[in-house]
């Protein structure tokens, strides 16, 4: 039986992205959101324009044609995402000894939709439903890195002395996250806490969530601020496993 055709998967992902964005997107925005080269993204959108499925506005940005509005509805909601991720999140907590969080992007913030306690029987507070400043946590950096809409600079509030609040510096950080495929945060959201996160993708490659660990800074990073051995591979493997369950192909 023939396998899936990558070019069609990418075209469908572009359509869904444009339909759900709520605003026009440039070629660079589309490429960043889907992990595509600018030339590839441009070729896809121009083909879709020629086919009448995408329109280009006066500013040169692209939008889904009006008839495709239904494509903007999320294919997977937070409850479904949590159900698909729960086993892998539990396993990640057991492997790393740290708490595990699963988040989605909501109004520019990282909304925690699932929380697995650190498996050491210590007193902990459930964080499901918590909304975190996306620019100041690893989960949020992952979500912003692949979001089609740029972060609102008015929301770059300093949570600690280490929080990145300069828009240009944040853009560089997000570009690095896209390049390496994971994010690290050290004491940007709260003193003494660090986190590592990786993207969760669905069919077509759209990032629908972020999975990560966080804990005391001494347990997550070494004295030079580098992730402790094994943490990054463990987080990325769990995120990829969830993604495969959602139909994503290996990248």
Description of the molecule:
This protein has 251 residues and is α+β, with helices and mostly antiparallel strands. It folds into 2 domains: 6-72, Arc Repressor Mutant, subunit A, CATH 1.10.10; 78-245, GAF domain (Beta-Lactamase, 2-Layer Sandwich), CATH 3.30.450.40. Helix content is 39%, strand content 19%. The protein is built from 8 helices and 8 strands. It has helices spanning 6-21, 27-34, 38-50, 78-96, 138-145, 167-180, 217-220, 231-245; strands at 54-56, 62-64, 99-106, 109-116, 131-133, 183-186, 193-201, 207-216. It has a 6-stranded antiparallel beta sheet. A two-stranded antiparallel sheet has the order 1-2. A hairpin with a 6-residue loop joins strand 6 (183-186) and strand 7. Helix 2 crosses helix 3 (38-50), helix 4 (78-96) runs antiparallel to helix 8 (231-245) and helix 5 (138-145) crosses helix 6. The longest helix is centred in the middle third of the chain and has 19 residues, at 78-96. The two termini are 22 Å apart. The mean pLDDT is 90.
Give a short overview.
The protein has 251 residues and is an alpha+beta fold. The chain has 8 helices and 8 strands. A hairpin with a 6-residue loop joins strand 6 and strand 7.
Here the CATH topology of the largest domain equals Beta-Lactamase
Rg measurement, Å: 18 Å
Per DSSP E runs of 2 or more residues, the count of β-strands stands at 8
The H-level CATH homologous superfamily of the largest domain, spelled out, is: GAF domain
Oligomer: single chain
What is the helical fraction, as a range of percent?
25-40%
* Count of structural domains: 2
Total of DSSP H or I helical runs spanning 4+ residues: 8
Characterize the biggest β-sheet: 6 strands, antiparallel
The geometry reads as globular
Structural class designation: alpha+beta
Global mean pLDDT:
90
CATH class annotation of the largest domain: Alpha Beta
- Tell me the strand order in the biggest sheet: 5-4-3-8-7-6
Low-confidence stretches: none
What percent of residues are in strands?
Answer: 15-25%
- Terminal CA distance reads 22 Å
